């Protein structure tokens, strides 16, 4: 099936792009791997979560437009040729393939993790994950939770746990209080007020807030866990820890688009022009994949991208840029100094999939590895099931620190299919062994 | 580690994880049901880490198909395994 436009991701950017494309008369296809549209920010799990009003509006507008929406479809490869893009996905009925002349990547963001001793233990999870558990699955991460890391999700998660009847035994914010003084926060007084109300709720619940501190280690302790912060052991049953968001660039990497590193935008992101165009013909990006700007900016970017695809007038980009200020400031609050990486002990696991401690990665750097691809080739770091999505940022940062180079010098890992592990039988489909073309055996 | 569920639930369902019978509710993911049951990890895996299909820690097998527990809704009578 050939579409005018394919949109990857049904979050705020992708859904807005689909609705706009529909208004402009384009035949578009939306692919998303979740059971409901909304992205991670408005993730819903019917019939559990009642759904947030913004998310419900998004789902209603997407359902009401002409786009063909494929939920529960996991994209595993995209190829580009002279006619456009060939998309290969796996859905509930098996392999799915489609073609589109243009492609808008609205793949959103993923969480940044910083390794610490014990981060591979069950009961340790990200802050974004905890948000999904609480909001979409209506499930507490634990009864007595340590909430740690940096950025606004710390306070959102801590508040969500209290609201759900759990206890936050410690909130460990890597930042000093001063990191939160940013004029751009005043651009969204409504969200600022919400943040203040969360903080007030934490105070009322007498949640210990430890600032300028990180979780140094987590260990099993009886049936639960013990988290060490500044030499003090804190008994808990779950640890939620994250350090902000990073653009989810696997598709744009795979297609060879130019990326740039900017810590203020979450690190490596795909480069777009004012019309959300990448430097690969027919390829566009909207939302956090083009730099973390948050859920308020994403729909503007999605609409602009769809209009650019259609060749329609873009109009003013002022709304998009204004809506980005708060999101960029929020993610900046999640940026922590190099000490979180340089303080990782030699025996602490950095690559969880391949169980590689810092010492192995450091030995490879000492042996002359200067890029993330070098370390990957030398150690298998990032070559396990997650494809480096859990460890690449921390390892690249370690390389930059050790070699006194920039993150641009260290680079990003080359994108390769499959984008996620796929079972061969899921993509092979039904075939007859007799029908397989077999070359004649070579003469002896 | 009981009582981690918040708020209303859909219809109850039950499935098997390796040899354990797990009670769950419609709309829950396999990972959530295991988490609520107190199974947060197994050899080489965890019910939740990233919760968004990135980390692959929650990989489980259903009818010999490899799936992500965090993206797979529970179904009555399903047989989930921690190994292929």
Strand and helix layout:
The complex is a heterodimer of chains A (444) and B (84).
Chain A: E1 2-8, H1 12-23, E2 28-31, H2 53-64, E3 68-70, E4 74-81, E5 84-91, E6 94-105, E7 109-111, E8 124-125, H3 127-135, E9 144-150, H4 152-163, E10 167-173, H5 189-204, E11 209-211, E12 215-221, E13 224-229, E14 232-236, E15 238-243, E16 245-247, H6 250-254, E17 259-262, E18 267-270, E19 283-285, H7 298-310, H8 318-332, H9 339-342, E20 349-351, E21 356-357, H10 358-366, H11 372-379, H12 392-403, H13 407-410, H14 424-428
Helix pairs in contact in A: 1-2, 1-7, 3-4, 4-5, 7-8, 10-11
Chain B: E1 12-17, E2 20-25, H1 30-37, E3 41-42, E4 45-46, E5 59-62, E6 65-68, E7 79-81
Parallel strand pairs in B: 1-7
Antiparallel strand pairs in B: 1-2, 3-4, 5-6, 5-7
Q: Care to describe what's here?
A:
The complex is a heterodimer of chains A (444) and B (84). With 444 residues, chain A is of the alpha/beta class. In chain A, 31% of the residues lie in helices and 24% in strands. In chain A, strands 1, 2, 3, 4, 5, 6 and 19 form a 7-stranded mixed beta sheet that branches. In chain A, helix 1 (12-23) packs parallel to helix 7 (298-310), helix 4 packs across helix 5 (189-204) and helix 10 (358-366) crosses helix 11 (372-379). The longest helix of chain A has 16 residues, at 189-204. The N and C termini of chain A lie far apart (46 Å). With 84 residues, chain B is mainly beta. Chain B contains 1 helix and 7 strands. In chain B, strands 2-1-7-5-6 form a 5-stranded mixed beta sheet, with helices on one face. In chain B, a hairpin with a 2-residue loop joins strand 5 (59-62) and strand 6 (65-68). The longest helix of chain B is centred in the middle third of the chain and has 8 residues, at 30-37. Chain B is globular and about 30 Å long. The mean pLDDT of chain B is 94. The A-B interface holds A 33-35, 40, 45-49, 72, 74, 110-111, 121-126, 128-130, 132-134, 137-143, 164-166, 223, 237, 248, 352-353, 384-386, 389-390, 420-421, 423, 426 and B 1, 3-10, 25-29, 32, 35-36, 40-41, 46-57, 59, 65-66, 71, 73.
């Amino acid at each position: 099936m050939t579409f005018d436009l394919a949109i990857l991701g049904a979050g705020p950017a992708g859904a807005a792009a689909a609705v706009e494309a529909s208004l402009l008369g384009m035949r578009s296809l939306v692919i998303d791997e979740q059971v409901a549209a909304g992205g991670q920010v408005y993730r819903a799990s019917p019939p559990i979560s009642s759904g947030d009003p913004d998310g419900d509006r998004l789902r209603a507008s997407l359902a009401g437009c002409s786009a063909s929406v494929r939920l529960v479809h996991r994209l595993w490869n995209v190829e580009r040729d002279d006619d456009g893009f060939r998309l290969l996905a796996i859905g509930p009925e098996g392999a799915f393939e489609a073609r589109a002349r243009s492609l808008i990547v609205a793949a959103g963001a993923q969480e940044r993790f910083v390794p610490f001793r014990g981060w591979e233990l069950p009961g340790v999870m990200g802050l974004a994950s905890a948000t999904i558990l609480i909001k979409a699955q209506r499930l507490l991460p634990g009864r007595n939770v340590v909430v740690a890391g940096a950025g606004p999700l710390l306070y959102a998660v801590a508040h969500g746990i209290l609201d759900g009847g759990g206890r936050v035994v410690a909130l460990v914010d890597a930042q000093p209080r001063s990191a939160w003084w940013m004029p751009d926060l005043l651009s969204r007084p409504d969200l600022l007020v919400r943040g203040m109300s969360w903080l007030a709720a934490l105070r009322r619940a007498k949640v210990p807030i430890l600032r300028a501190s990180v979780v140094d280690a987590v260990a099993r302790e009886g049936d639960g866990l013990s988290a060490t912060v500044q030499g003090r052991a804190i008994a808990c049953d779950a640890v939620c820890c994250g350090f902000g968001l990073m653009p989810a660039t696997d598709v744009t990497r795979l297609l060879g688009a130019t990326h740039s590193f900017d810590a203020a935008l979450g690190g490596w992101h795909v480069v777009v022009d004012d019309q959300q165009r990448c430097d690969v013909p027919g390829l566009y990006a909207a939302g956090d994949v083009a730099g973390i700007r948050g859920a308020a900016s994403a729909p503007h970017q999605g609409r602009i991208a769809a209009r650019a695809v259609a060749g329609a007038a873009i109009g003013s980009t002022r709304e998009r840029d204004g809506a980005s200020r708060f999101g960029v400031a929020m993610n900046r609050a999640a940026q922590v100094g190099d000490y979180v990486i340089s303080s990782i002990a030699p025996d602490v696991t950095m690559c969880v999939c391949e169980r590689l401690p810092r010492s192995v990665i450091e030995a490879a750097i000492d042996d002359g590895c200067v890029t993330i691809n070098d370390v990957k080739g030398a150690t298998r770091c990032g070559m396990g099931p997650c494809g480096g999505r859990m460890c690449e940022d921390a390892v690249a940062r370690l390389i930059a620190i050790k070699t006194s180079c920039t993150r641009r010098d260290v680079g990003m890992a080359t994108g390769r299919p499959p984008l996620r592990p796929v079972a061969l039988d899921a993509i092979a489909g039904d075939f007859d062994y007799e029908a397989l073309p077999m070359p004649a055996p070579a003469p002896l | 580690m009981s009582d981690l569920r918040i708020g209303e639930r859909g219809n109850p369902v039950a499935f098997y994880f390796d040899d354990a019978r797990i009670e769950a509710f419609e709309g829950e993911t396999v990972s959530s049901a295991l988490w609520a049951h107190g199974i947060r990890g197994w050899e080489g895996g965890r019910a939740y880490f990233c919760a968004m299909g990135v980390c692959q820690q929650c990989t489980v097998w259903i009818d010999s198909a490899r799936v992500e527990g965090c993206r797979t809704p529970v179904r009555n009578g399903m047989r989930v395994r921690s190994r292929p």
